[in-house]
Design a protein that fits this description.
By secondary structure, this protein is an alpha/beta fold. Strand 12 (260-264), helix 10 (274-283) and strand 13 form a beta-alpha-beta unit. The chain starts with 15 loop residues before the first strand and ends in a 9-residue tail after the last helix. The protein has two domains: 16-184, Rossmann fold (3-Layer(aba) Sandwich); 214-308, 2-Layer Sandwich (Transcription Regulator spoIIAA). Helix 10 packs parallel to helix 11. It is globular. Helix content is 28%, strand content 17%.
């Protein structure tokens, strides 16, 4: 098992047991802030146990349990190519791929940016899909599971929450040229966490991942520019900068860790208090790994922070 700090170990007895599955390798998955966020929020609920699985790990990280031991399998799928890996994981664990073929066993759900953009390619495999931000679903999952007598009642209770798409209740009508013309059933609305009072950040520290030398912190979600060609407009709108006092508390977690500060957003210098943020980081003596930078908003304070951090290359947007 990989070397980790801050993983959560809970007694599974009497609780909703959720297998959180990232359908790629541990090396890739542990650098995904969506995984960290969902893991933290689910385990924060006293009635839920959440353990992690990856494509290259057949047993859970926390207690070496098989996937079939869990009440629920929750895939977090940021990229479309990982749909294939999600199906592969179901097959390898002898779980029928199509929901219509599953008469028993774990409930299978999924969320993530690729699901929010277009859930239809994988909808036939999922009992429910989560559209939009992943925070805030823990209580609804727990309540729906323990208050329901069967799968249909569980899905009915779950579908009342914003952001939940149940393919057996809502499905698209498709024209002869494969265009979606309308929906049968209630059309789901994307879930939005607003304001962003609890930005995503690294929950578990490990060096055995792509960004293992960083403590990642989300400084904003969405993008104020809303370019039509960019998926950020569809998945993460509206633009929500994290409050500076909240971000500062997260910066303090990096102090003394020896890690770089990995800042995550569509463009760092779109934050309305970007210059104050640069000064705060400099005062704390932290070095950053920046996300994209808006070319028209580069200030002396940002250049000085990049110089101090010995950043050798940047992406300009």
């Amino acid at each position: 098992m990989p070397s980790e700090k801050n993983a959560i170990y809970k007694d599974p007895g009497g609780k909703l047991n959720i297998a959180l599955v990232y359908p790629n390798t541990y090396w890739v998955g542990m650098s995904n802030l969506g995984l960290h966020t969902v893991y933290s929020h689910l385990n924060a609920h006293p009635g839920i146990v959440c353990e992690r699985f990856f494509l290259d790990m057949q047993l859970s990280i926390e207690h070496s349990r098989p996937l079939q031991d869990f009440h629920m399998i929750a895939f977090t799928i940021p990229y479309e190519l990982d749909w294939i890996n999600a199906v592969k994981i179901l097959i390898e664990n002898k779980i029928p791929v199509k929901r219509m073929d599953r008469k028993s066993g774990p409930i299978v759900i999924a969320g993530g940016p690729s699901i929010t953009l277009n859930p239809e390619p994988i909808a036939d495999s999922m009992d429910a899909l989560f559209l939009g931000d992943g925070e805030g679903f823990a209580e609804k999952l727990h309540e729906s599971f323990f208050d329901s007598g069967d799968m249909n009642e569980f899905l009915e209770r779950l579908s009342s929450a914003r952001g939940i798409y149940v393919p057996s209740f809502t499905y698209p009508k498709v024209s002869d040229d494969n265009a979606i013309t309308s929906f049968v059933g209630p059309r789901p609305i994307i879930s939005v966490t607003n304001p962003l009072d609890s930005p995503a950040h690294t929950a578990i520290i490990t060096s055995e991942t792509v960004f293992g030398d960083m403590f990642m912190i989300e400084t904003a979600r969405g993008c104020p520019w809303k370019c039509k060609f960019c998926s950020a407009k569809a998945v993460y709108s509206p633009y929500r900068p994290a409050p500076l006092d909240v971000v500062e508390n997260l910066f303090d977690k990096v102090l003394g860790s020896g890690l770089k500060l990995g800042l995550v957003s569509s463009a760092l210098n779109d934050h309305p208090k970007a210059d104050d943020m640069y000064s705060m980081i400099t005062r704390k003596g932290l070095k950053i790994a920046p996300p994209s930078l808006r070319i028209g908003r580069i200030t002396d304070g940002l250049i000085e922070l990049l110089r101090y951090s010995k950043v050798r290359g940047v992406t300009l947007a």
